Amino acid sequence: MLGICLENVRKRVPLVHNITNYVTVNDVANILLACGGSPIMSDEPEDVEDITSICGGLNINIGTLNKRSIEGMYRAGRKANELGHIVLLDPVGAGASALRTDTAVGLMKEIRFTVIRGNISEIKTLALGSGTTKGVDADVADAVTEETLDTAVAFVKKLAEKTDAIIAVTGAIDLVADHERCYVIRNGRPEMGRITGTGCQLSGMMTAFVTANPETKLKAAAAAVAAMGLAGEIGWSRMQAGDGNSTYRNRIIDAIYNMDKETLDQGARFEIR
Amino acid sequence: MLGICLENVRKRVPLVHNITNYVTVNDVANILLACGGSPIMSDEPEDVEDITSICGGLNINIGTLNKRSIEGMYRAGRKANELGHIVLLDPVGAGASALRTDTAVGLMKEIRFTVIRGNISEIKTLALGSGTTKGVDADVADAVTEETLDTAVAFVKKLAEKTDAIIAVTGAIDLVADHERCYVIRNGRPEMGRITGTGCQLSGMMTAFVTANPETKLKAAAAAVAAMGLAGEIGWSRMQAGDGNSTYRNRIIDAIYNMDKETLDQGARFEIR
Amino acid sequence: MLGICLENVRKRVPLVHNITNYVTVNDVANILLACGGSPIMSDEPEDVEDITSICGGLNINIGTLNKRSIEGMYRAGRKANELGHIVLLDPVGAGASALRTDTAVGLMKEIRFTVIRGNISEIKTLALGSGTTKGVDADVADAVTEETLDTAVAFVKKLAEKTDAIIAVTGAIDLVADHERCYVIRNGRPEMGRITGTGCQLSGMMTAFVTANPETKLKAAAAAVAAMGLAGEIGWSRMQAGDGNSTYRNRIIDAIYNMDKETLDQGARFEIR
């Protein structure tokens, strides 16, 4: 069911403009190529409008933001809105600093986002205008677990309604919701948290998925989450004695490169609530 | 025949100053080390003149350019010209935005480049002052193929004459020309286009090759292209079931690391027109 | 003996704020995760104080510095000092440009560093306020060898006394000293110099080690050096025909990921002078 969304990415080769942090940008570019998209990066305010105009989607990630790139985010976002493009926000570290919180909240006021994707701590910050973030990982106390699932599902649906955006919260259990339906996805492995940037990679890939599936945006966002988690499982199954997080990073991107419709359809584990 | 150029890189260990984009910079540094060169990166205007002064070559890549780094490109370029250093331009995304086109064209006016290397779309933009770029890849319609080869060879020779630079156009068939002779190189694999930055890596490595072979610059530039393509073939031959573009990236750099004169001499497939 | 320091990193999961160059930043993040730490990157002056406040350690690396990030280094450093955090300086390229030398020397005047780590050329620049740096590698003539060891040990102890910081000089033989004791460490492989950023990675990891071992800072800094060198040995032992520096980079980070107390205790080769 979700596999068709991947197939559409490979068929339509969406061009995605990324304003993203310099820590994980190379992996974001490679996973976009792996899934069938085409990446282009630009953060200079005087460059971003032209670049985003030739793309179909825009991925804004605020990790390693600076004053220049923040201006680039606003200008690219406005232009993308004007053109009716898909726009995704990854509020990396929202809650960890005033600048990050203010930038994420400010962007949400001025730009219409198609999707907002983060960990539960970041998403709560956006929702509550406060919160704490331990680095860029979610507080364990605020993790989405089987016990807290009902509340969490209600929370993301409500936020989706309030923001008129798809809300994707990733963690041990992933949630992808609009105001009515919430995909609860149980793919992935805990070891993915020992690699830098699996979240950033997912945001890039999700932008490509939603851009290539404009009629089924929610499903496409869920498909990207399931594909990433499944790649984590496939990549892990190929690990050998002595391999660690650096090799695991390569194997996950490789698994996306080799994933087809059938693999995703068979491997995706989700329910809709 | 081309292998001697690689041998000279390993013998002379050219120090290459790179002003390059943050997407692929790590791979550029590692491939420079793999081929026997020594990389140093700096883009701050107040730092670049000192840094380029201790180097032998300068690699200017305009991907992820910003106003600060553009100033750095001009200052480094002028200083490198003053010192008679090798200077290469990689006009990433020229044609995709006004800022990129203007920067590439402006640099060409003020800096004497030893080599200009890009895809056919970018090079046409420089030549024509216009054009369209799909992300950073060449338009398929403008690809260099066996059918369009004669015209393309004539075009690059003419541009080489006009700019007094070696022109390298890379794609399915690669062309490296001065105003008289054009190397037509048929190494490489299409899957290299699914890795981010093989072009950026080639630009870094080509700067090292030309710097280490000042008496045979055209041949050295062609040798770098053949070495990169051959590494793509060797790397691909080592791919295993389940491997994808992330592992392929590693294997290509590894193949450069292990390449010797004989391997390059035997594996290079080219003619001179 | 040194293994306990690694165990403490895994137990205490120190959060490390990195202001580091964009060339090797991804590897720095991944090796921090591999050793058990948690990385966060931020260089915007208006962001760094908040970010460093939630961390335990600060790693300042001046490679690819710019005027904005230099201001970020000062502001983060002052705040970290105010909070009594661990602060490390990696003076990449000090001696290669006036801006780098001035920045490193200026930071040392205003910020109290817990550790200063570099190659012998960079450290001599800091000590002498002059010197030459071939790119970011040490001059061969100034290498620490068995012949020059006594002088080098005396030099680092003296500099440690003068700066009131732990001084770590890495090369063929590594030295980690305070004013009284110097760890002389003989782990590692020469091929590590063919990978970009093993020094940067070590600086990130060393910040985590010292942060997680506040009562035994000198020993913790030495443990990080031994762990990095040992990972270079273990990673090399897993190399297969055709592998090169790109794969080697992955295997080193993987070896840190898999290293335990016993492996480090048994593999560390050092003496205290």
N-C termini distance of chain A: 16 Å
Low-confidence stretches of chain A: 130-140
Q: How many DSSP E strands of chain A? A: 9
Give the name of the CATH superfamily of chain A: Ribokinase
Oligomer: homotrimer
What is the average per-residue confidence, as pLDDT of chain A, rounded to a whole number? 95
Helix residue percentage of chain A: 40-55%
* CATH topology group of chain A: UDP-N-acetylmuramoyl-L-alanine:D-glutamate ligase
Question: What's the Cα radius of gyration of chain A?
Answer: 17 Å
CATH class (first level) name of chain A: Alpha Beta
Main sheet strand line-up of chain A: 2-1-3-4-5-6-7-8-9
Number of separate helices of chain A: 11
CATH architecture descriptor text of chain A: 3-Layer(aba) Sandwich
Question: What is the count of distinct domains of chain A?
Answer: 1
| Helical/strand content category of chain A | alpha/beta
